[in-house]
Amino acid sequence: IGYEYIPKPALSDRRFFRRGAWLLECMYHLHMVELGGESWNRYTVFRDALRADPEVARSYHELKRQLAAEYRFDRGTYTAEKNSFIEGVIAKVGNGLES
Questions:
Q1: At what angle do helices 75-93 and 54-70 cross, to 10 degrees?
Q2: CA-to-CA distance for 16 and 29, rounded, in angstroms?
Q3: For residues 65 and 86, what is the distance between their CA atoms, to the nearest angstrom?
């Protein structure tokens, strides 16, 4: 379907694929994780928090829009800033998830 596998040793529990040239055109990312694995559980907790609390979903939406505008050509900072929000939500509602 046009995605390229990008080996990322730091992401040992998931596989990373991208579509499109880096920073030159619209880029799409696809992450694959093991069903029931640590990343799966963390993503599921975050997804469920977004579904359960419209205020959390709205805040995440607004944050992503602001970060996309501010860090249009700095994916690393965009991701780090977004991850801070995600980790905060998981910490609040994770109930025993391992970090």
A1: 160
A2: 7
A3: 15
Packed helices 54-70 and 38-52: angle between N→C axes, nearest 10 degrees: 110
Query: pLDDT tens for residues 25-50?
Result: 667 889 899 999 999 999 999 999 99
User: Would you say the pTM of this structure is higher than 0.85?
Assistant: no
Q: What are phi and psi of 9, to 5 degrees?
A: -55, -30
pLDDT band, residue 24 (cuts 50/70/90): low
Q: Give the H or E element holding residue 32.
A: strand 28-33
Long-range contacts of 74-79 (CB under 8 A, 24+ apart): 75/23
> For residue 56, which amino acid is it?
V
Q: Per-residue pLDDT for 23 more than 80?
A: no
